[in-house]
Write a structure and sequence with these properties.
The chain has 580 residues and is an alpha+beta fold. Helices cover 26% and strands 17% of the residues.
């Protein structure tokens, strides 16, 4: 999951939270009550799209996915395995783990204008297919569903549907893959708990899916407890990009068929505030929670922990923060130069730019705690590489690696390296600290600070921009599986011209083959070992500098019982939260 600049709990962090008196998982105490209006304050623009086939960012999940739609499998706020939602039970796996059969509930209705129509498995089949349409712009289908039989023919235009997805009747869905896929079973993860399984009626939506960009999101029909305010005739009225999003109750929703309590009568997202303003409004106001920012400014957090502990939830993010190094830009194609940068980084000092120990644990490798493969890669201690083991800078070690790379003096003497950073705190403070740290061994940077969106869309996620270093990256699990970390970021087949998250542009055939092998493993123990070994390998190659396994912070007003989500860490689960 792409996290906002921006799941299993870590015992050490839980103890820290308890010691500080910080509210955990259940919010600030008090009973839940039905009704009322909740306001979500956003900083970075709120949701990215109304289309369920596109949803991939934290705010999309918080404000739309879990609230307005139902998918095959959903997520309870305190669990790290998905719960049957539209499905009646876990999938049945057969044919050597290559065939999955799922039965869905009868009688789940859509909102107006299809309020007399019920969800059928053909709608889920089309939903999965449209996630491969360029005009939908999905960011994960190729990582998790590409091995379904018939995908290649569908993507190339040789077939009008995906042959490996079948709906033999209205309540049975059958998925055939060309090989076992761990994340399509419940052994390793929950790719069937992603928004691509939100039902989309083909005969209704297909007309909106034509053209360069699908407009289905502006006309969608809803299955969840809430819906985006609309005119009842298929037109959204409650959404203005980067301004507002209004959710109201969905009259077609039947509570008896759903595990989500959905206490609020109305949810209003408001944007776009300065993070200090948003944080203070939430803490001093009524009926508010923090939205699309993972933590308040350092000074606000410090003050809140001192005087408003019951309004602060600090939980492990299930993700990391890292510095991306582009191996296509010299001299970063040299592993010893990359290791030198890793050795000279003061991870503790970088953590201070975001709030200090309260905000997480300094990282020694890529996979975060709570993800299978973390322990196999060395746990908190890490794989034992000298260039990642110290939380503070080791200048002599960095100099020794630069000598191995051909810099006889132990100092970098080459041209300045293009480095593009986010221009707003705390990310800007992190980038500036990084610049000072690498300067200790002679690195000069062509340092640019730009707006967050520009950093991604014009520089760091565009290979042609040839950015050497991107210091403000973070990644969170799409679900609780190591594949959702390693595959998108280090598999060469995922390098694309724009929206590229393989920042290092790693395309090593041997590494690609190992990733593909690991993806096919369905045994949890064997899978954890292989992903742990892959974590060691990418860490050894220093394709990145992981410096923090971070915590996310949820702020709430005094009258709100905010329930944080493990699956979408850093956000209050709006269908389980309530007013006190």
């Amino acid at each position: 999951m792409r996290i906002s600049f921006l799941r299993t709990s870590i015992a050490a962090i839980a103890c820290l939270a308890a010691a500080l008196g910080i509210a955990a998982c259940g919010g600030g105490g008090g009973g839940a009550k039905k009704g009322g209006t909740l306001t979500v304050l956003d900083v970075a623009g709120g949701v990215d799209s109304l289309d369920p086939g596109y949803w991939y960012y934290q705010s999309d999940y918080q404000e739309l996915a879990n609230s307005t739609q139902r998918q095959l499998y959903g997520w309870k706020p305190d669990e790290d395995t998905p719960t049957p939602d539209l499905a009646t039970s876990k999938p049945k796996v057969s044919n050597g783990n290559k065939t999955i059969t799922i039965t869905i509930r009868k009688g789940i209705k859509y909102s107006a204008p299809l309020q007399n129509r019920t969800v059928k498995t053909a709608d889920i089949k089309y939903a999965l297919e449209r996630c491969f349409l360029p005009q939908v712009g999905n960011g994960y289908a190729n990582s998790y569903y590409a091995d379904i039989a018939g995908v290649d023919a569908y993507k190339s235009g040789k077939a009008k549907e995906i042959s490996g997805i079948k709906a033999p009747n209205d309540t049975t869905l059958v998925i055939d893959s060309t090989k076992p896929v761990g994340v399509l079973t419940f052994a390793n993860g929950g790719a069937l708990g992603m928004p691509c399984t939100v039902p989309v009626p083909k005969d209704y939506a297909q007309k909106y899916d034509k053209g360069k960009t699908s407009t289905y999101g502006q006309h969608q029909v809803f299955t969840g407890p809430y819906m985006v305010e609309n005119n009842g005739k298929g037109k959204i009225t409650g959404y203005e990009p980067s301004k507002k999003l209004t959710l109201v109750r969905n009259p077609s929703w039947d509570k008896s068929t759903d595990f989500k309590p959905a206490y609020f009568d109305r949810i209003e997202e408001k944007c776009c505030f300065d993070s200090t303003v948003a944080s203070r409004k939430t803490l001093t106001g009524q009926s508010m929670v923090s939205g699309d920012y993972a933590a308040p400014p350092v000074a606000v957090l410090k003050s809140a922990l001192s005087s408003r502990k019951s309004q602060v939830n600090i939980d492990p993010s299930g993700g990391n923060r890292y510095i991306g190094l582009n191996t296509k830009v010299k001299p970063l194609d040299n592993v010893n130069v990359r290791r030198a940068i890793s050795a000279v980084i003061d991870r503790s000092a970088l953590r201070t730019t975001r709030g200090g120990p309260n905000i997480g644990i300094t990282a020694t490798h890529f996979l975060p705690p709570g993800i299978a493969g973390f322990d196999e890669a060395g746990g908190n201690k890490g794989p034992g590489f000298d260039f990642t083991s110290s939380p503070t800078a080791n200048v002599p070690l960095a100099e020794s690696y630069l000598k191995k790379a051909g810099f006889k003096s132990g100092r970098y003497t080459g041209s300045p390296l293009l480095t593009v950073a986010d221009n707003t705190p705390p990310a800007s403070k992190t980038a500036e600290a990084f610049q000072a740290q690498v300067g200790k061994v002679g690195f000069k940077l062509n340092f640019k600070e730009v707006p967050h969106e520009t950093m991604l869309s014009k520089f760091c996620e565009v290979p042609k921009a040839a950015v050497a270093i991107c210091p403000n990256f973070g990644w969170g699990a799409d679900f609780f599986a190591a594949q959702s970390f390693i595959d998108p970021l280090f598999n060469g087949k995922n390098i694309v011209p724009s929206g590229n998250v393989n920042i290092s542009q790693v395309n090593d055939p041997a590494l690609n083959a190992k990733i593909e092998k690991a993806k096919a493993i369905t045994d949890p123990t064997a899978s954890a070992k292989d992903w742990g070994d892959l974590d060691k390998e990418v860490t050894s190659q220093s394709y990145f500098i992981a410096w923090l396994w971070d915590n996310d912070v949820v702020l709430s007003s005094t009258n709100v019982k905010a329930v944080p989500s493990k699956f979408n860490s850093g956000a209050a689960d709006l269908v389980f939260s309530s007013l006190k």
